[in-house]
Structures are given as C-alpha cells and as structure tokens.
Design brief:
Ubiquitin-like (UB roll); Fumarate Reductase Iron-sulfur Protein, Chain B, domain 2; 257 residues; alpha/beta
Length: 257
C-alpha cells in the first residue's frame, strides 16, 4: 500500500471539484494537494482535462495555466530525460511527460512520489536521496595521470558493459517504489543509487573498484534489497536496478572465494 509522510493522524479529505468548460471528451484528474504552510489536512482536487492533450504533463500544465495556478509540480525537459516530473500516477511511479493521457481508461489519480517528505502538492523532497547518491562518489576515480592529448580508451566490450546503467536519470521512481527503502530509508541506499554504484564498479577506466565494493559491503546499505522487483516495474527508462544490485552482491561473493 502506498503511504505518505503526512502530519500525524492526518487524512486526505475531498477537495474542490472544478466545473467542466468547453466541449469535447475529457478526463478527470484527481490530484493530491498539500500545503505545509496551511494547517489543514491534504485534499484531492478534481479537474476536467480535455483529451486533446497527448501526455499527462500537458494536462497538468493546462490545469496550472488555465484553472489553478497554485498547483505545484516539477517539470523541465518534457522528453523523459531530466526525471523532474516523476510522480505516482494511478498507483505507479512514472514520468508525467512520457505517459500518454489516453493510456488510462478511467479517471487519473495523481500523487507525489511515496514515502518522501512533501514540500508542496506533487513536489517531493529528494534531498536525502541525492545525499545518498553523492555518498556513492559517482565519478571516475583513477590514479592514472590526466592527459589533454589522450583519451581513456575502452574496447567495445568494455563500453557495452555500461549499457543499462548509464541511462539512469535519477528520477527515483524505483527508489520510492521499494518497500525496503520505505522501511530503511536512513541506511539502505535504494535501487537508484546502487544502480549508479554498479555503473562505476564495472567501468574499465575506474581504478577504485575494490574500494567501492568495500564501501557497499554492509548489511543495510546493500543487503536490505530483497529482490521484490518493484524497482524494475516502475523504471520509466526500462532499466533493471535489481539486476545491477545482484551484480554487486555477486562481485562481493567472488572476493570471498
């Protein structure tokens, strides 16, 4: 069950239902609204959105520009690249910009990413998630001298080893879908960070593989993953964080043999 970090004993109450205007088919968007500056329970407001809009994000932008300018959500690239518009749509964490409005038969229910502190409406606080990502030191670490005249070369096979890892856009749809992360967000790094850690572990140009593995060899940082696979189902880029995590565990096992 999806839960949210809300004020103690708060319950989501029915909100405002905006009138239908114009002609043509439409869908109802039921959107979670919460303002921490107002001492009131969160609510679900309902908005009619024309089916002329191709994507969920287009519908949200129309609501903000024409119906309710106070609605808060993140967006940027509109191409599934930046990860800004990650939210929970009809029970699944995904990107609003690449989710067709017509992919749902009935009404569309939108919540922020679950189990994160809410800033306002659909804007979740990702500060902690990015701090965990930074702890993995996601950059090339090499003792080889830097040369402006020579690149750090890889074979085609070495480059292909990074496929399925470097494409992560850090939308944290996977991390916020993971029950293990819900239970242990303070110690478990989560699927997104571990997938990024795997990306540098397998990079042939990186010299800190063993150090990276040692940093992850922890009962909570890594082994809280129970292969539930929610991360795979929710990834909008069709990546496999569970496979990446299994690869890290396999590398640690090989060190002990």
């Amino acid at each position: 069950m999806v839960q949210f970090l809300l004020p103690k004993e708060s319950q989501v109450r029915p909100g405002e239902r905006y009138p239908v205007s114009g002609k043509g088919p439409f869908k109802w968007f039921h959107i979670y609204r919460y303002d921490p500056d107002i001492l009131d329970n969160p609510r679900m407001d309902s908005y009619p959105v024309s089916l002329d809009h191709p994507m969920i994000l287009d519908g949200l932008l129309t609501i903000k520009h024409k119906i309710d300018g106070a609605l808060a959500f993140r967006h940027s690239c509109r191409e599934g690249i930046c990860g800004s518009c990650a939210m929970n749509i009809n029970g699944v964490n995904t990107l609003a910009c690449i989710t067709p409005l017509t992919s749902y038969k009935g009404d569309i229910v939108i919540y922020p990413l679950p189990h994160m502190r809410m800033i306002k409406d659909l804007v979740a606080d990702l500060t902690h998630a990015f701090q965990q990502y930074a702890e993995s030191r996601p950059w090339l670490r090499s003792s080889k001298p830097i040369s402006v005249y020579k690149e750090r070369l890889q074979s085609p096979e070495e480059r292909r080893a990074l496929d399925g890892l470097w494409e992560c856009i850090l939308c944290f749809c996977c991390t916020t879908s993971c029950p293990s992360y819900w239970w242990n967000p303070d110690v478990y790094l989560g699927p997104a960070t571990l997938l990024q850690a795997r990306r540098w572990i397998v990079d042939s140009r990186d010299d800190a593989t063993q150090e990276r593995l040692t940093d992850l060899d922890d009962a909570f940082k890594l082994y809280r993953c129970h292969t539930i696979l929610n991360c795979v189902k929710s990834c909008p880029k069709k990546l496999n964080p569970a496979q990446a995590i299994a690869g890290i565990k396999r590398d640690l096992l090989k060190r002990q043999l």
